[in-house]
Amino acid sequence: MEPPISLVGINHKTAPIGIRECVAVSGERLHLVLKNLLQEADEVVVVSTCNRTEITLVRPRRDPLAIYRDHLGNYNEYAYIHQGLEVLRHLFKVASGLDSLVIGEAQILGQIREGLFAARRAGATGPITEKAFQTAIATGKRARAETSVGRGAVSVAYAAVDLARSVFGDLTGLRALVLGAGEMAERVLEHLVHYGAREVWVLNRTLSNAEKLAKKYGGRAFDMEHVAEALAHADIVVASAAAPVYIVRYERVREVLKQRGRPLFLIDIALPRNIDPKISRLAGAYLYNLDDLEEVVARNRAARAGELPRVEKIIESELAGWMEWYAGHKAADRIRRLRAWIEGTIRAELEGEIAGEPDAVQRLVHRMAGKAAHPLIQIAKDPELGPALERFLEG
Q1: Which of 78, 146, 217, 228 is 20 to 30 A off residue 264, Cα-Cα?
Q2: Of 123, 152, 181, which residue sits at a domain end?
């Protein structure tokens, strides 16, 4: 009894960062995409992060790959698709951190929750997506509480700082610049300070947010107008701001490098990217992005390999629970539709029989429908006979 659910997406395993940033959606654009996707399916949720953009559809009215192409772009050669139970298994793995760039990272839980909330605001969720995503979140929490898959520093932010440590050997005494003041930026600052960065600057479009974060870690805060000054000051730049255009531009870094006489190490973990990729061509500029974290990721994966079977066992347990819920949901839906069919049939027969007394007709119809439906309700609940009744109801 496969649920009528499909998932199509692009992630860090199937597509490079240049493709991933083309399909990433957020804010008002995400709301518009969800509204448009409601013409394509009964229920819709979009999860879009730095490493994936996935659309979950309940009862899609045409090929999910074609839906993805028409609403997010023609990148089907990078896309994957899951159907039925495999959608649930995939969602639960994603929420547990097994499908993340950094195995076990916890940020994905918040991103899944944000995707669900955005779909709710657009009126795009229903019983199947609500139960699927709420169970996915619960699965992710269980995985981290009952296993060691998420223990220690496991995040893209940690991987970025670990990459800087592998280049410099030691961050003690270095000056760091962080672009952005969100959750990712805070995790970056936490790790930079932990590993000895001497001075940290925070740049953000909203200065008050930058000041709040900088104060927490003993740094200094500026708005984005001070990018050139901050670049000249920094040894390490980590970019994680939400911005539609490049914050760090090629010409600006070229001028800074001419004046400073020492190299600049930049890590761009934002999507869309904050740093112009052409900067990597400049002598003295060492630019890395999300796709360059593979060595750190490989160490992380090896360290957590022993926990994966335990997490997968939790996933299968939650999947069984979801399917039990779905069987009940299907039975309840069949009963509702059965009663509606019987009421409609009786109403058609009685129409005009009790002229001028619509309330009496309604009471009589409802009572007769209940009596007529009673023996058929057991059939609706039966997992073997239920589908046959459903085919009958669909005509």
Answers
A1: 217
A2: 152
